[in-house]
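Incident review: delayed structure delivery

Summary: a single-chain prediction request sat in the queue longer than the usual turnaround. Root cause was a stuck worker, restarted by the on-call engineer. No data loss occurred. The affected request and its eventual output are reproduced below so the record is complete for anyone auditing the incident later.

Affected input:
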Amino acid sequence: MNILITGACGVTSRAVARSLRVSSLRSNLRIVGSDVCDNPYGLFEGLYDCVYPIPHVKDSSYARYIVDICAREKIEAAIIIPELEVVYWSGRRFPAPVALPPPKFREIAVSKKRLYEALAGTGLVPCFGLLQEKCF
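Output delivered after worker restart:
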């Protein structure tokens, strides 16, 4: 199985890749990464079979790079990690199977304040001692 992990050099993306590498799927797994590579530490850890340097998500050519990577590597599933990329793709069609939040949820969940306000009165937002007066 060919999996794309975006933000490959980031801490969270590397943790996901590490988890996949120790899973029972590892023998049939090919992990492809993409990243702007500003902090290329992740390139030298050996977690990915290959990593593609790509432009920042705000660059007009970003989507074309992702589409090309998915086609070239025959990506069967993608894991989108950096928030900016989740925000970008949640309202668009990703070129491979991927789980992304719907745009309306993304608009709320991208901000802790908005999320807490949306959950006000549900009992889902924990409240602790001194912060009692600021609880939602």
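Verification: The beta strands are 2-6, 30-35, 50-53, 77-79.
Action items: add queue-age alerting; document worker restart procedure.
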